[in-house]
Design brief:
mainly beta; 578 residues; 46 strands; nine-stranded antiparallel β-sheet; elongated; five-stranded antiparallel β-sheet
């Protein structure tokens, strides 16, 4: 039976095999992609294993494209051991699960013709496989294949957003050859295609889920896509025939393998600027970055090797020999092991990353291309119900009390030790009870001039805070609220007192003239404090005593009473505390 050998320009084969397919060892993808000759088919035993159209599908994986889509998932699960690697076998039309703990391959899962790209949801429940012009879901718990999802043209690379809601699929062989199709994973419905560069291959999504980056094989560029709007931005020029792409776990830099240039191009994502190319092996395809972000590993199809690149310096290390025509690469969540698909060897090579030593190859299906590893959490089943509480044990008997020993003699008093450091300040004590209401407010009553018709009846002064200066007949006693310019407002608190009465006239009294100033509780009619102005005190008097306690709401008035009419026509001002 003939075995398909994809063209190296597509990121699949190299060496003698590529010469069989293309007849030359140079830039061969153009012929392959556009199907200009029968070199797009591999003929063995007189018949073609795959048509040119199917060959295009196998180009799809871009050696590590789907890997980059999983980089964020691996970084998040660092420190735990993964459970299963899933490998797409293009020539077996299947997917092979590999138990990572034992490196044992399980039974192949039939998925359809020429599977290529593969990605696994962050929760580890579902794998999505690019199969022809569809994407096929696989339930990881049972390895059951679901209904295929139709996308635009031939499906290639796959990347899934960190929130697990959307998959993005490159379609290099759609009607226009430059599209990416989004799939809503809750419903497995494909959305409207997004136009990018020519022949999109690899795709990776930033760890924050805001942007996807797509390699355009023919355009020699990378297209950023803003995922909130699914709008493509300006293309970023990189090396020749860019294939796969991976993004560092910190989201600062993307690394692109350039199949035609034998290099890797770093792209600074804050500015979308490409840096100097890093030379690696021949025909680099796949790329994966360790969860700690220190090293990238690049598969070299033409060198049958993997090149480690130290990302702090962008320096390539010694190549690691693996199987024939290595394609894609994946790294376990704990960062200890990388797995490389060898298209020409029908195998997967594990690499111990602590030593960069390749282990024995693991046999899988024919033409392995894509690979993805489930997160560690996916291997754990659901928590079972809590079992019933067992019976309490019997309480042991209390042992007998021991004999009290004799009191020893008192020793001599020791030397006084040095004074210890001052301890921390103690906790602030509770606030004491509130004391009786203070006499803080000051009331002022005044009139510019006062006339008495009857010297013994007196007159009351205006409360200046309400009406300014003035006087009038004193108001009657009122228990309800009276409206009057002659009264203060309510007391500030129950139990207030009147104190420190001070009265003053604008002219000196003489002879037998006397005027008495009285502060009166209008609510009860009680006199609170008073003082007298006479010829001895000349024009003022005061009383520094305190009145009886008032009730809240009481009003106060100030009455001036003269002993004769000679005290008429004088201005008065009276102040006190309450």
């Amino acid at each position: 039976m003939g075995v398909f050998k994809p063209l190296p320009g597509a990121g699949v084969t190299s060496g003698a095999a590529s010469r069989v397919l293309a007849g030359t060892h140079g830039k061969r993808l153009f012929t392959f992609v556009h199907g200009l000759s029968d070199r797009g088919e591999a003929k063995m035993g007189g018949r073609a294993r795959f048509s040119r159209l199917r060959l295009r599908v196998l180009v799809v994986l871009v050696g590590g494209t789907l890997w980059t889509a999983l980089a964020g998932t691996f970084a998040a699960a660092a420190g735990a051991s993964p459970s299963t690697a899933y490998v797409t076998n293009a020539n077996s039309n299947s997917v092979t699960p590999i138990e990572v703990a034992t490196n044992k391959a399980g039974p192949e899962i039939s998925v359809g013709s020429s599977p290529s790209g593969i990605a696994i949801t962050p929760d580890g429940k579902t794998a999505y496989v690019a199969v022809g012009s569809t994407v096929t879901p696989i339930e990881v718990a049972t390895n059951t294949v679901g209904s295929a999802i139709t996308v635009g043209g031939e499906a290639f690379g796959i990347a899934i957003t960190p929130d697990g809601k959307t998959a993005y699929v490159t379609n290099p062989f759609s009607a226009f050859g430059h599209e990416v199709t989004p799939i809503e994973l809750a419903t497995n419905k494909a959305g409207s295609a997004i136009t990018v560069g020519t022949k999109p291959r690899g795709i990776a999504i930033t760890p924050d889920g805001t942007t996807a980056y797509v390699t355009n094989y023919i355009s020699g560029s990378v297209t950023p896509i803003e995922l909130a709007s699914n709008k493509a931005g300006p293309e970023i020029t990189v090396g020749g025939e860019p294939a796969a792409i991976a993004i560092a776990p910190d989201g600062t830099t993307a690394y692109v393998t350039n199949f035609g240039s034998g290099s890797v191009t770093p792209v600074e994502l804050a500015t979308n600027k490409a840096g100097p190319e890093i030379t690696v092996g021949s025909e680099p395809r796949g790329i994966a970055i360790t969860p700690d972000g220190k090293t990238a590993y690049v598969t070299n199809a033409g060198s049958d090797s993997v090149t480690p690149v130290e990302l702090a310096t962008n320096k390539a290390g010694p190549e690691i020999t693996v199987g024939n025509e290595p394609f894609a690469i994946a790294i376990t969540p704990d960062g200890k092991t990388a797995y490389v698909t060898n298209f020409g060897s029908n195998s997967v090579t594990p690499i111990e990353l602590a030593t960069n030593k390749a282990g024995p190859e693991i046999t899988v299906g024919e033409g392995p291309i894509g690979i993805a590893i489930t997160p560690a959490s996916s291997s754990t089943g659901p928590t079972g119900p809590t079992g019933p509480t067992g019976p309490s044990g019997v309480t042991g008997a209390t042992g007998p009390q021991g004999v009290t020993g004799a009191t020893g003699a008192t020793g001599p008093q020791g030397v006084t030790g040095v004074t210890g450091a001052t301890g921390p300040q103690g906790v602030t004590g509770a606030t004491g009870a509130t004391g009786p209401a203070g006499n803080a407010a000051i009331a002022t009553f005044a009139s510019a001039v006062v006339f008495w018709q009857n010297s013994t009846s007196g007159a009351c002064l205006y409360y200046t805070q309400i009406a300014g200066q003035g006087f009038g007949g004193c108001p009657a006693i009122a228990s309800a609220f009276p409206i009057s310019n002659l009264l203060t407002g309510p007391m500030p608190a129950n139990g207030a007192v009147v104190s420190n009465v001070y009265a003053e006239t604008d002219a000196t009294l003489s002879g037998k003239e006397t005027a008495t100033v009285t502060v009166i509780d209008n609510t009860t009619g009680a006199s609170l404090l008073s003082c007298a102005v006479n010829s001895t005190s000349k024009n003022h008097c005061s009383n520094t005593g305190e009145s009886p306690h008032l009730a809240a709401g009481d009003r106060i008035e100030v009455k001036v009473t003269s002993t004769s009419s000679f005290s008429n026509n004088k201005a008065w001002e009276v102040s006190f505390r309450y």
